[in-house]
Amino acid sequence: MRFASLGSGSAGNALVAEAGGTVLLLDCGFGLRETVVRLARLGLAPERVSAILITHEHDDHLGGAFRFSARYRIPVYITHGTLVAAGKIPREATIEVIDSHRAFGIGDLQVHPYPVPHDAREPVQYVLGDGAYRLGVLTDTGTSTTHIEAMLTRCEALVLECNHDLDLLMNGDYPRSLKQRIGGRLGHLDNETSSMLLGRLDQSRLQHVVAAHLSEKNNRPALARSALSKAMGCGDDWIGVADQATGFSWRELM
Ligand SMILES: [Zn+2]
Ligand SMILES: [Zn+2]
């Protein structure tokens, strides 16, 4: 199994995981043409994508999903709440409503959704597995929970939100209400909280840790790296960072 990112941050998110002949897009926050260009960078034709998994209705995750689904005739897996919040859906899009706690399979990949606290209708995040290895993805959550940690422990790879540095956010020029939303229980994970979460997990199988959904204003890649490396006891260089322009290239699990 391998995985990569098409881009990560408040302007658009999409992750891709591949095992056997199955290619899943996790979120599709880029427009149709942009998604195709970004897939091509990873050597993937859009026709190779088997399905799209959606985390929640915010535009940076859902923005391009239905059009991609309609154009390439592939299903969108989505919770009922997210579907309702999404509003108008093109007739040609194929929808599969999922239970936020129930695992299911798509081709060679197992998909395990789990609920997270975020300011959306029914947000989930996902653990993806190929039977041998598991990739845990967590972004867009205001806090950690014991359930989140039970889902992410003992994974072989983690993509973890490091949205902001709390000092940069609080001393920055965002309006007070926005600072409170981002830093609140239903907002986004800051570097320190993400680091503490990682510190509580069984890390014995970890081959990859990538920081994701970094704020361009309220964070720096070096701060995210050093927060996560502290929890791992590893060098800063070992921690990957997903950026808005290029995401990150293929990472293999073996
Ligand atoms: Zn987001
Ligand atoms: Zn969000």
Task: Give a verbal description of the structure.
The chain is of the alpha/beta class and 254 residues long. It is 28% helix and 27% strand. It contains 9 helices and 14 strands. The strands form 2 sheets. A 7-stranded mixed sheet has the order 6-5-4-3-2-1-14. Strands 7-8-9-10-11-12-13 form a 7-stranded mixed sheet. α8 packs parallel to α9. It is globular and about 45 Å long. It starts with a strand and ends with a strand. One zinc ion is lined by residues 13, 58, 60-61, 140, 213.
- H and E string: EEEHEHHEHEEEEEHEHHHEHEE
Q: What gross morphology would you assign?
A: globular
Spatial strand arrangement across the major sheet: 6-5-4-3-2-1-14
Helix run count: 9
Instruction: Give the percentage of residues in beta strands.
Output: 25-35%
Structural class estimated from helices and strands? alpha/beta
Biggest sheet record: 7 strands, mixed
